[in-house]
Amino acid sequence: MCISMGHFLKIKLLLDSYKNVLASENKIQTEKFIYSALQIQDENILYNDVKYSHIIFCEGSAASLNPFFPALPFHLCKGEILDAYIPELKEEYIINKSIYILPMGNQIFKIGSNFEWDFKDDKPTELIKQQLESSLQTIIKCNYEIINHQAAIRPTVKNREPICMWHTQYKNIGILNGLGTKGALLAPLLAKKLLVDF
Ligand SMILES: Cc1cc2nc3c(=O)[nH]c(=O)nc-3n(C[C@H](O)[C@H](O)[C@H](O)COP(=O)(O)OP(=O)(O)OC[C@H]3O[C@@H](n4cnc5c(N)ncnc54)[C@H](O)[C@@H]3O)c2cc1C
Asked: Can you give the pTM of this predicted structure?
């Protein structure tokens, strides 16, 4: 089956570009957030001696350790992705057939992904690399070279319902999470909903 007018989001490019915009406006700090440094006052939040009106946690799978939202129904799911250089493969289609083969330009393709529900860490593994390559070989018959291999944890939740809410006790602390396997699609709508719900 061929679906026309399909699109994909270059999420790293989007995030890096937006970070640059925020940095140019002096609106972003890139550092590890330390929960214990947060002080909650009646109307404001104090973090490292700076006052904020609200805090919204968007920490992906790390939120399973968030002390403000301790009982979230996470069922995290690890996935791995390969970047392959495939000089002879046409770049005009996204192929989706047990795995996806996504053209990124310059004959580089993203090959993904697997769903692993029981895992030890967030590191790429040789086993999944071999499985992805084996699926790739059933779809394409041309030479390729693997140039990168990454793994990450999807912040999936048991009932598949995204976590998008304000704290019951501290009204200016919110969370946006549980985006699971479709984060890029769901995030804008849910971010809007969170603000409307405040
Ligand atoms: C292999 C794979 C393939 C995927 N494919 C798709 C797809 O095709 N389409 C789609 O829509 N979604 C896809 N997803 C899912 C999507 O990536 C997730 O839903 C999305 O990344 C979740 O966004 P998030 O912002 O909640 O979490 P993340 O993207 O995990 O972002 C959380 C950020 O918070 C930071 N952070 C955490 N704790 C702290 C701290 N204490 N201090 C500072 N920073 C902190 C992390 O470093 C990270 O940068 C895929 C995921 C994986 C793993």
From this structure: 0.91
Any atom of ligand 1 within 6 Å of the Cβ of 162:
no
3-state secondary structure 160-181: CCCEEEECCCCCCEEEEECCHH
Q: Give the ligand 1 atom nearest the CA of 60.
A: 27
Spell out the domain ranges in the chain. Answer: 33-74+158-197, 77-154
Q: Is the CB of 178 under 6 A from ligand 1?
A: no
What are the residues whose beta carbons fall under 8 Å from the beta carbon of 79, sequence distance 6 or more?
112, 113, 114, 115, 116, 151, 152, 153, 154
d(CA 105, CA 186): 25
**For ligand 1, atom 21, which residue shows the shortest CA distance?**
183
- What's the CATH class of domain 77-154? alpha beta
Establish whether residue 33 lines the binding site of ligand 1, counting it when its CB lies within 6 angstroms of any ligand atom: yes
pLDDT digits (tens, 9 = 90+) for 152-195: 999 999 988 899 999 999 999 999 999 988 888 899 999 999 99
Q: Name the band, by pLDDT with cuts 50, 70 and 90, for residue 36.
A: very high
66 lines ligand 1 (CB under 6 A): no
